[in-house]
Design brief:
This protein is an alpha+beta fold and 258 residues long. Helix content is 55%, strand content 8%. The chain is built from twelve helices and six strands. Helix 4 packs across helix 8 and helix 4 crosses helix 12.
Length: 258
């Protein structure tokens, strides 16, 4: 069977770039009729006309839980006359998990932890007061949760001046990033990249906040500027695309738990 996602995507680290790359190429025609799932040796597989879907690295697209397999199958079944990976965010994320993150778990986890040292939530505007207040309203509850629930307390900085964080505090926050579940780790990495905050990512993963709250917190500065200067059309489209990726990553978190 043709490896459709390899033809279009390779193994992208950035879901947004994946979408742009797909848009620059001719989409392949849909070549299958029936989509189904079955339990195999490596987990639940997705079948196209009875043949297993494979990842870009040629591994079987197999996941540990039936609910996730059914969600992946729905993405394949929803394709029209052409196969468009930009409409298959869960499939893309699982491909990245199986082909890339599974081989680099420690490195991926370390990258998430590195975000924490200079996390978005720690760097506050010097003004105006309305922006400072809005940042505090969205960001302080997450930092309070880290302190109260996990004993991790951090210094705040104004502007772009770097402030070193206590290593023991970083270690406590880093303990929330585990490598045991490659699908959850992939989702956590994606949320971190999309929001610019590992603290928001772990708060979502731990159920402290929901996806909508995290997304709003990640865009405090942007929304404040939009209210005053208006929104750029291209930027708005990029944001919608990234939001879809965010929701897919949160869904992967939920479905990876069975």
């Amino acid at each position: 069977m043709r490896d459709i996602l390899t033809d279009l995507d390779g193994t992208p680290a950035d879901p947004t770039e994946s979408i742009r790359a797909a848009g620059r190429r001719t989409l392949p025609k849909r070549f299958y009729t029936a989509v189904s799932t079955r339990q195999g040796e490596d987990g639940f597989e997705i079948l196209l006309d009875g043949r297993p879907v494979r990842t870009p690295a040629k591994a079987k697209l197999a996941v540990p839980h039936l609910a996730l397999a059914e969600a992946l199958a729905q993405e394949w079944a929803a394709q029209g006359s052409e196969i468009d990976p930009s409409t298959m965010p869960l499939t893309r994320l699982v491909n990245v998990a199986l082909d890339g993150v599974a081989r680099e778990r420690a490195a991926v986890a370390e990258e998430i932890v590195r975000y924490m040292g200079t996390d978005l939530l720690l760097y506050r505007a010097e003004g105006p007061d309305s922006l400072v207040a809005r940042q505090a309203a969205h960001w302080d509850p997450v930092l309070d949760w880290l302190h109260q629930s996990h004993g991790a307390r951090f210094f705040l900085a104004q502007g772009i001046r770097h402030v070193a964080q206590p290593q023991d505090m970083l270690d406590r926050a880093a303990a929330l990033v585990t490598v045991d579940d490659v699908l959850a780790l992939t989702a956590l990495s994606s949320i971190t990249a999309l929001t610019g905050s590992a603290f928001l990512a772990v708060a979502v993963a731990q159920g402290a906040i929901d996806a909508e709250t995290a997304w709003a917190a990640a865009h405090v500065d942007e929304d404040w500027n939009i209210e005053r200067w208006g929104e750029d059309t291209a930027a708005a489209h990029r944001r919608l695309t990234r939001n879809a990726d965010m929701l897919a990553a949160v869904r992967l978190l939920e479905l990876s738990r069975g």
